[in-house]
């Protein structure tokens, strides 16, 4: 046994000695890197980071192939690009420092959820509630703007509004967008099965091809779809028409069934058998009642 330990020590002799101070430094650095990565993922910097990784990969390829002119150009613009990034992300950096000053480290390190179930998954019931709310708002010609978060985080948009954190229901959405209520102006952000914020401000699109007949609400829907992968439901206040914005485009929705299928397809829900029969049956009954 002693020979085995002696052999093992001889193999590891080239490694530097690790003291308690070194271990503490490793833990602190790992924690800081983790916090920075979480901050990046919850802001627009996440897409920027992916772009930087592409540039680094391109730089590595240029170095391997000895493309010295390209390497010289990249070296000259690196300092300017770093300064530009600090200017562009000044609001995010400021918010990060403010959050750092008000953060409870014990709570962050040891989070307690209180046993509340996870609502991250987007379910068929949520689709039904969104469709029902859109149809009712359209009938009443009540304007609405519902932003459904997907892969791109919408934390920046969420901070511009008022926190709600309520389960998605048609009654909640209808009450939010009801005229002369404090929350009716602006957009709601939906994450999973929950309405996380209301009265949120969205960036307007600069696309000149958008019809002049469409107002600010539709332009805002297209604007947020241009910079994120979110799905946006728009209800026109003038006509009651329902539209769906995605990837900088706007799709007109003819009826509730079309909206149901579009949401199910784009949000990863598929129709199997009778999964949507209950909702469709209710729609048919409502149409007969209207006639």
Write the layout of secondary structure elements.
Layout: H1 2-11, H2 20-41, H3 45-64, H4 68-88, H5 90-102, H6 105-109, H7 124-139, E1 144-148, H8 155-159, E2 162-167, H9 170-177, E3 187-191, E4 194-200, H10 216-227, E5 231-235, E6 242-246, E7 249-253, H11 256-266, H12 277-290
Parallel strand pairs: 1-3
Antiparallel strand pairs: 1-5, 2-4, 3-4, 5-6, 6-7
How would you portray this structure in words?
- It is built from 12 helices and 7 strands.
- With 291 residues, it is an alpha+beta fold.
- Strands 2-4-3-1-5-6-7 form a 7-stranded mixed β-sheet, with helices on both faces.
- Strand 3 and strand 4 form a beta hairpin.
- The longest helix is centred in the N-terminal third of the chain and has 22 residues.
- The N and C termini lie far apart (91 Å).
**What is the terminal separation in angstroms?**
91 Å
Spans of 5+ residues with little confidence (pLDDT < 50)?
105-118, 269-291
Overall shape: it is elongated
Task: Write out the strand line-up for the largest beta sheet, numbering strands in chain order.
Answer: 2-4-3-1-5-6-7
Compute the gyration radius: what is it? 26 Å
What is the makeup of the main sheet?
7 strands, mixed
Strand proportion, as a percent range, falls in: 5-15%
DSSP, total strands? 7
Features:
single chain, 291 residues, alpha+beta, seven-stranded mixed beta sheet, 7 strands, disordered C terminus
What's this entry about, in short?
The chain is an alpha+beta fold and 291 residues long.
